[in-house]
Amino acid sequence: xxxxxxxxxxxxxxxxxxxxxxxxxxxxxxxxxxxxxxxxxxxxxxxxxxxxxxxxxxxxxxxxxxxxxxxxxxxxxxxxxxxxxxxxxxxxxxxxxxxxxxxxxxxxxxxxxxxxxxxxxxxxxxxxxxxxxxxxxxxxxxxxxxxxxxxxxxxxxxxxxxxxxxxxxxxxxxxxxxxxxxxxxxxxxxxxxxxxxxxxxxxxxxxxxxxxxxxxxxxxxxxxxxxxxxxxxxxxxxxxxxxxxxxxxxxxxxxxxxxxxxxxxxxxxxxxxxxxxxxxxxxxxxxxxxxxxxxxxxxxxxxxxxxxxxxxxxxxxxxxxxxxxxxxxxxxxxxxxxxxxxxxxxxxxxxxxxxxxxxxxxxxxxxxxxxxxxxxxxxxxxxxxxxxxxxxxxxxxxxxxxxxxxxxx
Length: 409
Ligand SMILES: *Cc1c(COP(=O)(O)O)cnc(C)c1O
Ligand SMILES: [Zn+2]
Description:
Layout lengths: L2 E6 L5 E3 L14 E5 L6 H9 L29 E3 L1 H6 L4 E6 L9 H14 L4 E5 L3 H13 L2 E7 L5 H9 L3 E5 L3 H15 L2 E2 L5 H7 L1 H9 L7 E5 L4 H15 L8 E7 L4 H7 L25 H10 L3 E5 L1 H15 L5 H15 L8 E6 L8 H5 L11 H8 L5
Parallel strand pairs: 5-13, 6-7, 6-9, 7-8, 10-11, 10-13, 11-12
Antiparallel strand pairs: 1-2, 1-3, 4-5
Helix pairs in contact: 3-4, 3-7, 4-5, 7-9, 8-9, 9-11, 10-11, 12-13
């Protein structure tokens, strides 16, 4: 689909589609790609999509034309799994988990990165840069390697899970560790990208949001061409939930039966500027020193914050604030009762679901999708810390039985 304009999400200023920019010329607001969807309708699209393999590029009618073969690893096409025990605990019937940890580098970031890196190639860029709490870094490093582009990654010192750092390093990225927070790293990318001579691949890049919105299209398809009643999603910078909203809104525009889902943004108590603005119906106020075990959402000044707050309000949605203890409990529950190991930030969506259910947010028969944003193996420190290594046992059956403390009856 041809991009017709690049529109400011704050003031509505339209910029020519040919311009390469990351913020509004007038108000420095975030930008969004606009298409002309005339002539498209969901019935024909659904048929066409069903004839293609699953994944981001299945939805190419609703994605920007990049005049280039995509740099892809067949990202997207992730499972929507029923989680009956999670549902039962909230006295709900229909709860689904969108398992984004199934993506090539283990998080939903790959959806945006296939589009972002392809765009960088189409522009002839040799170098890409991002600020990251880990998963954007891992994803950008992998796609940059595949696309033959140099990856420069700026991370807050001590603020990134080891698994994610290992990925970025393995993929050959150049890592800069900052004495500062994610928000400092983001500021350096915004102010310094042109001096660094690199293409910015944070979620202020509107092409990334395009890839990420395919998760919404997938959910709609996986539910048989129907919207869920709710989408519950953890928010850090807010790009993911804003992307879901763009996906759902565009489906409505091409004729899907509404209403669109209501959105619930979940944040950790120590890093909750988006959730607070929603719950208090106030302006977004940045948090000085964001703190939570969920490092992927440890963000005080979210770049897509206002846009996400607006999307949640427009959808008639709400927000949830959860503690690190609740996040840890949801992570253990998902792993031990449903067999799904997710990272702490992802578990926040389930912790949020339970909290919102306790507040009476949902009707018992609502269809609810919780987004599990990333894989548990990326950040195993929490569960590993609870693991007390057992004493070594002699290599005999009897010794193993003794260690198990039981004998067959
Ligand atoms: C990036 C990320 C988030 C936060 O997403 P935003 O788009 O920044 O709101 C949540 N969970 C995981 C695992 C992530 O990688
Ligand atoms: Zn503007």
